[in-house]
């Protein structure tokens, strides 16, 4: 990882762009960071030491100005807004500037067709735990991006979690696992909390038990580096209560349900990419 990152701009620093901004700020590796938002109120939330936060509400040229000041330009606006934004900023890009897409379903080829085939483009798919430095980010290079370009983008996203390089045709599949994955975990916590309530626990105690069990289990997994199946076996005594519960979950084809759910997410990603 480099000692410092070059100037970075995040255009459309909403929830995901804002999370990445927080990771960059916390890392101390981004001494020059510019972010843009549509509203002055949202821009004010990201304003702080080491961050220039601009709003389109106050400056219609904010995106162009931010792009012109950066060697790495992250595009965080909604997918449908990407083409117009790229047409706006393309003339202002610095020579050699890397353009990074955070937009689901928008290919590097689409980016290159607007900013130019010689411009290095990298497609990225982070997830929301970026705000606490625990993201999983998938990255895929476009046709003009070099190994050095990819290393810089990897270093950028490493400030807020782990980074996986994949072929671009795997980005949508990755999004169904790590991108949507936090929602699956929260749903499991919700349902386990409800099961605790059903057994007579107060709302506060049910929530505490369910949430801290997930947090503790994840922390143990991270600390030990053990295979999840091995940690599960250690909890599951033969002919015990956990074994009986696990058999119910396995009997309900939990693995098949996850396969079906992620397949459905992938199908929707492809629909969105096709504009439907």
TrEMBL record:
Its EC number(s):
1.5.1.2
Domain of life (superkingdom) = Bacteria
Matching Pfam families, A to Z?
F420_oxidored, P5CR_dimer
Can you name one GO molecular function term for this protein?
pyrroline-5-carboxylate reductase activity
Tell me where in or outside the cell this protein is found. Answer: Cytoplasm
Range of residues in the leader sequence? none
Query: Pathway involvement?
Result: Amino-acid biosynthesis; L-proline biosynthesis; L-proline from L-glutamate 5-semialdehyde: step 1/1
Query: Which residue intervals define the domain Pyrroline-5-carboxylate reductase catalytic N-terminal in the entry?
Result: 8-105
Q: Which reaction does it catalyse?
A: L-proline + NADP(+) = (S)-1-pyrroline-5-carboxylate + NADPH + 2 H(+); L-proline + NAD(+) = (S)-1-pyrroline-5-carboxylate + NADH + 2 H(+)
Transport as a keyword of this entry, yes or no, is no
The answer to whether the entry has keyword NADP is yes
Matching PANTHER family: PYRROLINE-5-CARBOXYLATE REDUCTASE (PTHR11645), PYRROLINE-5-CARBOXYLATE REDUCTASE 3 (PTHR11645:SF0)
General function of this protein: Catalyzes the reduction of 1-pyrroline-5-carboxylate (PCA) to L-proline.
Q: What is this protein called?
A: Pyrroline-5-carboxylate reductase
